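[Help] Beginner question about ligand-bound structures

Sorry if this is basic. My supervisor gave me a protein sequence and a SMILES string for pyridoxal-5'-phosphate and asked me to "get the holo structure". I don't really know what that means in practice or what format the answer should be in. Inputs are pasted below exactly as I got them.
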Amino acid sequence: MQSVLDLIGNTPMVDVSQLSPSPNIRILAKLENHNPTGSVKDRIALAMVNAAEATGELVPGRIVIEPSSGNTGIALAMICAQRGYRLKIVLPESVTEERRQVLEAFGAEIIPSPGEEGSNGAVRLAQLLSEQNPSWVFLYQYGNEANPLAHFEGTGPEILADVPDITHFVAGLGTSGTLMGVGSYLKEQRPDIKLYAVEPPSGETVEGLRSLDDGYVPPIFEKWGGVDLLDGKRIVRPAESIYWARRLMVETGVFAGLSAGAALAGAIKVAERLVEDDSAAASLQSDRAGLATIVFLVSDGAWKYLSAGVYGRELGHDDVAEAAEKLDQLIYF
Ligand SMILES: Cc1ncc(COP(=O)(O)O)c(C=O)c1O
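Answer (accepted):
No worries, everyone starts somewhere. Holo just means with the ligand present. The predicted complex, written as structure tokens, is below.
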């Protein structure tokens, strides 16, 4: 009989090309919200726990500590509960209430960090606490090789198997594990595949994502090729991520979180540039072979963001801008 941990990965791919700016550009979404705790982070949480067990660092009775205001914390809380480890999550005080509740329901202990310091403040506090308590196991997703490896060995091969004609991969950048792991695998197999990171502008927040221009560069990003691996990045503002998350929901039925809206916005920008750059633009309307197949990642579902009030039905720009402004008060990462 399978355990719930066996259900991690092998997520479905759906065609959302009705949102594409060109009939010759396909846009496909990999639904990581289908993982057991509802996000892509189940993959890396399991991989980090397995790796720490394999080295003997994580043994029964040890305490695991990790800073996270969302998905990694929730994934670890479920997995640690299954494996019998105590878990402490350093959580910025400003996160939405449902996250706190899920973490506590799975038995994780919450250590609050100052809300105004955001995710970087949570990372600093977790670092300090793990130095003060050397017996605690600090998994540190930003620097843990198991993070990109989970994507190199799992997410990447799944994408290529499902979409052999993929030409572009677009994903948000948080720890960079997804982009570095999937990107390394795809480039190794097919060097012609293009890889795009989606980031918010410096100083703005799209949940789950970070701007490298804000100063913190995750160690795994540098170790796995960083900017050299990427073919480019697309900057997406919070209002655009809300706009595209809503369109994804209303027009395709994919009930996705805001970083998926951002990744889709990035995919649309990549598609629009392809249309512009195509020297035979007129022929796009003809029946010639497809111009591109773009895959983007839906990192999680929309449930945890409902209380932030950004999934209203109106798609008007004023409304979206207002929702984005409201989001500014919250920290998600
Ligand atoms: C909702 C969401 N989207 C995107 C990401 C970014 O993924 P990665 O950390 O693999 O770069 C994260 C986590 O960091 C996330 O929680």
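A couple of things worth pointing out: The chain has two domains: 4-34+155-327, 41-138. The chain has a mean pLDDT of 90. Feel free to follow up in the thread.
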